[in-house]
Design goal:
The chain is α/β, with parallel strands linked by helices. The chain contains 3 helices and 8 strands. A 5-stranded mixed β-sheet has the order 5-2-6-7-8, covered by helices on one side. Strands 1-4-3 form a 3-stranded mixed β-sheet, with helices on one face. The chain starts with a helix and ends with a helix.
Length: 203
């Protein structure tokens, strides 16, 4: 073995280490953060809804109550996206967009999310249980929720329904999936708004 061969070894090891580090850096992805947003809504009543409405609490399974966006990878398999995450608590995001949707649909500013108000006297309160919220980037976004309307601050239950929606993901990306969920929540809000109008007419 020559002196030259001996000196080559450290440089070869350093070169290999640098190549490995460069490869790792190339594979590193930057996390992206998303929020649900309310859709533009046309009021379903020309008369302003004159009752105070409180949204919440919002409950969901443990696999949804996390930062990672959940998609379906098989019949009994879910995928938790490592680099595509919710920007904040999902239950709060859902409560806020439903409050915003209902405010537009009912032509009123008397709709609030319960975490953002204190001491509010309300006429109706809406609880939601999110049963399913997943989908495929190359398929459909799924939303299934059970919602209950309570009347009066005392909380007598007046309506419970189960709603399920499927929305085509028009663009096979996470942003496209979020847009599809936005449309699904818009349909859910429309159902809730219609039920509130029916209940208020019954007195």
């Amino acid at each position: 073995m020559s002196i030259l061969d001996i000196y080559k070894r450290p440089f070869s090891a350093i070169s290999a280490a640098l190549l490995l580090l460069c490869g790792c850096a190339a594979q590193t992805s930057t996390a992206r953060f998303y929020i649900l947003d309310a859709m533009p809504e046309t009021p379903i009543s020309t008369v302003s809804f004159d009752k105070a409405v409180l949204i919440g609490p919002i409950r969901m399974p443990g696999h949804l109550d996390r930062p990672n966006i959940v998609t379906r990878s098989g019949h009994n398999q879910l995928h938790l996206a490592e680099f595509h995450r919710w920007a904040g608590p999902l239950d709060e995001n859902i409560g806020l967009i439903i409050a915003k949707d209902l405010s537009r649909l009912l032509n009123t500013d008397r709709v609030s999310y319960y975490l953002h108000v204190k001491g509010l006297q309300w006429d109706y309160r809406i609880e939601l249980d999110i049963i399913q919220m997943d989908g495929r980037l190359d398929g459909k976004a799924l939303l299934e929720a059970r919602w209950t309307i309570y009347q009066g601050t005392g909380g007598s239950q007046v309506e419970t329904r189960l709603s399920r929606f499927e929305q085509e993901v028009e663009e096979p990306t996470y942003n496209g999936l979020i847009q599809a969920w936005n449309r699904a929540f818009s349909r859910l809000s429309r159902e809730i708004a219609g039920a509130l109008l029916e209940i208020s007419k019954r007195g």
